[in-house]
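B., you asked whether I could sanity-check this one before it goes into the benchmark set. Here's the sequence:
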Amino acid sequence: MYAVIKTGGKQYRVQPGDVIVVEKLDGDAGSDVSFGDVLMLGGDKGVTLGAPTIAGATVAATLVETRKGEKIKIFKKIRRQGYRRTNGHRQMESVLRITGIEGAGEKAKWDGETSLMTKAEMNLRARGLAPRVEETEAKPAKKAAAPKAEAAAEKPAAAKKAPAKKAAAKSTEA
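And here's what the prediction gave me:
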């Protein structure tokens, strides 16, 4: 089942489980959001159009995060006059996870779990730069220093082995 909703002056086609980015909405991360401006519903019973909206139809979502969007540059110029102005901004936007659609005698729910991990944190974890919360809580600070000492102890041992290999290689050449 899918729906077409209107928010922030734009229209979005959504299904349960979709993640969409819309204009900034009020609320904290994890709060529930409901959209009443449902313009169209599509499902097993066919397509239902609203005039302008479908009465009684709602789309439920969970607010994942509110963040700044991509940078937009504004450049003004009047040629041959020496007039140039550069400006820009980053628009605030909200990330939503669609959890359910209800209307026209049909219901569709998303059974998954809504993760409140931000996009910035996901990118850091993908590159292996974000600290894992489970590891830092499980290990005390003293044990974290011990692997560094072990790694430092292994480096001289590796340095001692390397010349021995070179010497062995030289003896096989002669």
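One thing to flag: The first strand starts at residue 2 and ends at 7. Otherwise nothing jumped out at me.
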